[in-house]
Design goal:
- With about 150 residues, the protein is α+β, with helices and mostly antiparallel strands.
- It has a single domain, classed as Muramoyl-pentapeptide Carboxypeptidase, domain 2, CATH 3.30.1380.
- Helix content is about 35%, strand content about 10%.
- It contains six helices and four strands, in the order αααααβαβββ.
- β2 and β3 form a beta hairpin.
- α2 crosses α3 and α4 crosses α6.
- The longest helix is centred in the N-terminal third of the chain and has 20 residues.
- It is globular, with a radius of gyration of 15 Å.
- Bound molecules: zinc ion (ZN).
- Zinc ion (ZN) binds next to β1.
Length: about 150
């Protein structure tokens, strides 16, 4: 099974899909390239925060996708892979193709900078315009991304 170091399957995938298809199928469908990219982004984000003169508590270095603990637990259920019949978001959303994840973190400016400057290394092909979507960063992953496309939601 494809694996992530930092994110559990529940953080990445809508529960209904896990129930219906099982964890292994869903994680493999996301694929190791994307999972590694998410892990790299999570690792680099933590490093960037550690280098800044900001707080370094757990909540500062976390990237949240679906909430599975604490304050986040009930708040986000559809920020990762969504079922085809999920009513959240666009009909043909990349979330339904196992390719899009909405990343939340305390220092979103740091995350946006990382993605914009290293999008190819993170296998990110498209993001939603962070000037419009301000509290999370919608990232679409691709095995061989071209120049980063920033689109308006
Ligand atoms: Zn999204």
């Amino acid at each position: 099974m494809a694996k992530s170091r930092y994110f559990t399957p529940k953080e990445l995938i809508q529960q209904d899909l896990i129930t219906q298809y099982g964890v292994d199928y869903c994680m493999d469908k996301i694929g190791q390239t994307t999972l590694d990219a998410l892990d790299s982004l999570r690792y680099d984000y933590q490093r960037a925060i550690e280098l800044l003169d900001r707080d370094k508590s757990t909540k500062d270095i976390q990237i949240i996708i679906n909430g599975t603990w604490g304050f986040w637990r009930t708040k986000f259920k559809y920020s990762g892979v969504r079922a085809v019949d999920c009513k959240i978001g666009a009909l043909n959303s990349a979330h339904k193709k196992f390719r899009a994840f909405d990343l939340k973190c305390k220092h979103i400016d740091v995350l946006i900078k990382l993605v914009k400057e290293n999008s190819k290394a993170y296998h990110i092909s498209r993001i939603e315009n962070p000037l419009i979507t301000k509290t999370w960063l919608h990232c679409e992953f691709s095995p061989f991304p071209d120049e980063l496309i920033i689109f308006n939601p």
